[in-house]
Amino acid sequence: MLDQHRDWFKSLETATASVFAVFPLTPNNYTALSIISAIICAYFLIQNNYWPAFVFFIVAGMLDFIDGAVARRKNLSSNRGAYWDTIADRYVESILLFGLLFAGLPDFYLSACAWLFLTLFGSTMTTYAKAAAKEKGLPGAELKGGLMSRAERSFLLAVIIVFLNYNKWLAVALIALLALLSNLTAGQRILRALRMR
């Protein structure tokens, strides 16, 4: 949903760009740093050290916001940069889910591993539904929106990491919710694409 309302964050983007555009880093450098931050986050998840994991996940998300803001501020936006940003987003999310495999999560109707797989599958299909529609030349194929776009998934993942400090059972319940809503979002986009004329 939030991906359809980028205008809500325009003033924040302008302020962010004015701060980070002064550094000698390209937007692609910021994108690469987001992957590195995700790897550090996964390391702390594997170590069951959840507050540092949370911090580095937030840093990864901030860097993802910064790269686009800097690209637009410096007039460096390009199809290649947008492609790299999309690929990096998938890596960041996948690396985090990989780290959660080692967080000692309990079962919640299904095993925690099954919920993590379904989350990854739903996240991938949400993105792939959009990419495949565009690749196949469906009219109006810039599919966005749905219940659980990337911004909403990232927010819920951050909440899940926080809950790991207090209640792992509730964290797994939220992962199950994320899995269900991610796949529902993929289904929404697939149906929308199939209905296009």
Could you explain the architecture of this structure?
It contains seven helices and no strands. α4 packs antiparallel against α5 and α5 packs parallel to α7. It is mostly helical and 197 residues long. Helix content is 72%, strand content 0%. The protein has two domains: 103 residues, CDP-alcohol phosphotransferase transmembrane (TM) domain (Four Helix Bundle (Hemerythrin (Met), subunit A)); 91 residues, no CATH class.
Short note summarizing the structure:
It is built from seven helices and no strands. Helices cover 72% and strands 0% of the residues.
Superfamily (CATH H level) name of the largest domain: CDP-alcohol phosphotransferase transmembrane (TM) domain
The pLDDT mean sits at 86
CATH third-level topology of the largest domain: Four Helix Bundle (Hemerythrin (Met), subunit A)
Distance between the termini: 23 Å
Major sheet summary line: none
Output the number of helix runs: 7
Order of helices and strands: HHHHHHH
Question: How large a portion of the residues is in β-strands, by DSSP E?
Answer: under 5%
Kindly name the structural category.
mainly alpha
What is the radius of gyration computed over CA atoms, rounded to a whole number of angstroms?
Answer: 17 Å
Range of helix content = over 70%
CATH class of the largest domain: Mainly Alpha
Shape: flat
Low-confidence regions: none
How many separate domains make up the residues? 2
CATH architecture of the largest domain: Up-down Bundle
